[in-house]
Amino acid sequence: MIALNHGMTGAVVAAAINRPILALPAAILSHFAVDSLPHWNYKVPGHAALRPIVIGIDMILSTVVLAVLAWSFADSPRLVFIGGFLAILPDATWAPYILWSKPSPRDRNTPLHILRRFHIKIQW
Question: 3-class secondary structure for the chain?
């Protein structure tokens, strides 16, 4: 799923709960809840060179939307922004695949590898 969806969801979760001790873990968990829904990923058929551009645009747009959402919630703008950022963060575990098209050679049976396997299983 694109980062924009995750960021907005995490920001709204954080704003709705409005208690950092509960809101921030809930924002992270929202990532997996949203990923369990049918969705589009960064697949640009026949245009592999466009993938980094699409991801870059998505990250810039996500940051702007998070800033606007944070500004909109004057009570706790930092919490809203951090909640959105944390909701995007699980996708950062895919950086080795995105950057080098393969995992790190030391990435077998680590907690990160186990998290990615879970992440793959819930997406459809």
Answer: CCHHHHHHHHHHHHHHHCCHHHHHHHHHHHHHHHHCCCCCCCCCCCCHHHHHHHHHHHHHHHHHHHHHHHHHCCCCHHHHHHHHHHHHHHHHHHHHHHHHCCCCCCCCCCHHHHHHHHHHHHCC
